[in-house]
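Model: Ready when you are.
Researcher: Fold this.
Model:
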Amino acid sequence: MEHRVVVTGLGAITPIGNTVNDFFENVKLGVCGIDFISRFDTEGYDVKLAAAVKEFDPAQYMDLKEAKRLDRFSQFAVAAAVQAILDACLDVDKIDKDRFGVIVGSGIGGLECIERETKTLMEKGPKRVHPLFIPMTIANMAAGNIAIRFGARGICSSVVTACATGTHCIGEAFRSIKHGYSDLILAGGAEASITPLGISGFSALNALSRSRDPRRASIPFDKDRDGFVMGEGAGILLLEEYGHAVKRGARIYAEIVGYGATGDAYHITAPSPDGYGGAMAMKNAMKEANIMPRDISYVNAHGTGTPINDRLETIAMKSAFGDEAYNIPVSSTKSMIGHLLGAAGAVEAIACVKAIDEGFVPATIGLLNPDEECDLDYVPNSGRKADLAYVMSNSLGFGGHNASIIFKKMEE
């Protein structure tokens, strides 16, 4: 027996807001969350800009002792999960915790802690390394800490697929509930890699924008794009079996109806030149949702702002949607919040759910000089009001990982 899966809670820590409402209000306004890096001295770095989380206080979500035992990415994850539980009005003591799971990933994990403790090792020796170094850094600990916080004894897993992590986590959670293994799952991703090593590593790949202008740094689908801008944060969605949600009188934001996951089997960083893998992920998601391209109301693209990615994602969308591709609004919220790596797909999924909920298509801000090879409707600079029936979110990760999920406006 297959079960319907719905979204009943949302939580977000982002560069343009530390709650879902603040985040999406700023999305509607087209606010840019990019600024000069302030967490460390960028003297000697080619990259000067990032999209950092502002004014985050972990004490709002956990006590000081717990906060000190968590890397920044885990702090973000727990905070977003707390928000999602509160938003869903879920009393965790009144559910079957054996059927309550967590699938939350991180593309990199505790990079800040890795850098700090490596310095300690080199300067002070092995006996001075923090005793919690390993559990603070490994990527699965966002999920582990969330499960501990809420006593979730069901599936506790962490998908790690680079920039597709968040979307894969949501998709796998969807399948677990759809096929009857779980009643509720907290799903999403978290990342905190605006660190010297994080910026240096991606810069060495020539993946990051070297712009000095925050408004012209993360510019997906623009002819002048020169790379992505590193972002940070977390997005967590509470997915719930439809009958379970109805029984407890939950507010339902949207239904998840399709998930596609493929591999390019091509290159460690570049997408397949024909866009085949990305296109198949979209096609598979539509097949599971039992819809056609004409049914898609909006696509939240991966849209990183790298020259190759945006062009090949455009090719993939044309392959997946055919001529209908020109009629579907497409935008990249990375133009506002940068690229949150393992958290990107999760925060973008929240943007999709809120887009359905509020009837609003987010813009791709900073799109001033259209690229002839990126010729779809990228909703430049200003968002639009629209009644959205089906919304797709795409993520493409280093290693050739592709994921697409489809949300549907809720119907009884």
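Researcher: Now this one.
Model:
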Amino acid sequence: MSLTPQLVLFEEDHKKIVAVAERLVSEANAKAIFLVDKNGQLIAEAGELKGIDTTSLASLVAGNIAATGGLAKILGEEEFPIHFHQGARDSLHITLVAQRIILVVIFDERSSLGLVRLRVKKASQRLAEIFEQVFKKTAAVFDEKGLGAPFAEISEQDIDNLFSD
């Protein structure tokens, strides 16, 4: 799995993202919403989070997207942007937003797949707009500072020197 470029999230953008997630919880009658980047980092969350290991969820969702991306390529597809997993109690609807953000909706019998899909479509469009702005800001920050990526100027030799006796 190749890592996607580092994401720099400003407070005002994070607030916009959380607002969209909170609205989606309400409009889709969802239990919880998570936004995760393809590297497995949790970006935002909303809803009933009690008892959910968010770190593991973020990591496993990113792994799931990577694995199904491999399956897609085998079948000649670019990617499978929508995933659905139905459980006895809870179900997951997973959508790729702006090619690198994973929107996870956890829902139960209080909602339906149709309602979730309908509300996710609208929320995904708004999130894509927000994240496109975030990506532009991130690129501008790295260009302004002359950084290709965080820690790009640190070599393997620098790391070896740091940890050598």
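Researcher: Key takeaway?
Model: The radius of gyration is 18 Å.
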